[in-house]
Fold this sequence. Notes:
- Keywords: Membrane, Transmembrane, Transmembrane helix.
- Belongs to the peroxisomal membrane protein PXMP2/4 family.
- The protein is mainly α.
- 83% of the residues lie in helices and 0% in strands.
Amino acid sequence: MASLAIARIYQHSFSTHPNFTLAITGGSFNALADCIAQFSQNFVANRKDEDQKPYDVIRTLRFFCFGCMISPFLGRWNTILERRFPLRTLPNSTRVSVRALSKRVACDQIVMAPIGLTAFIMSMGLMEGRDPAQIREKMQDLFAPTILTNWKVWPLAQLVNFRYIPLPYRIPFQSTCGVFWTLYLSIINSKEDEKLDARKQ
């Protein structure tokens, strides 16, 4: 019953204020992922008898802000894919075009995945107060290995998303799956920050 009530509230909010709803949803899931990442890093450090870091609220806030920024854009992107590659080409048909579904996933991974990753690296660099040279170095270090990992993980998730999830719920589904992905991004971004800070000293 509670989940049904939440779904109704979300649906009403999405119908009346779609961009705001997607922004808060995406931002909240991003913040949750970073919170888990920080506790996980401290848990691992404790097991290795290494120094634990105090919880970084500003870091979580940065992830929240990025989620708020990118989620409405992703919502618009999903609408474009929905119109450009309709899964049911015949009226009243229940058959799904496998070709159209494959094109959706391919377009999402070839076009949007690199854009989203670039936006993440650059946004984090700017919010962290990095100079252009450091952001460029961050991009060189993180982009290639992260996009390759992305292509191992996200195509299957997006296949399920585009095939079974209604349009208003695709960003929440993506964000739910993305908790683990954002956890990964949070950890690699944190390690890269430590490396950049060590070079400054």
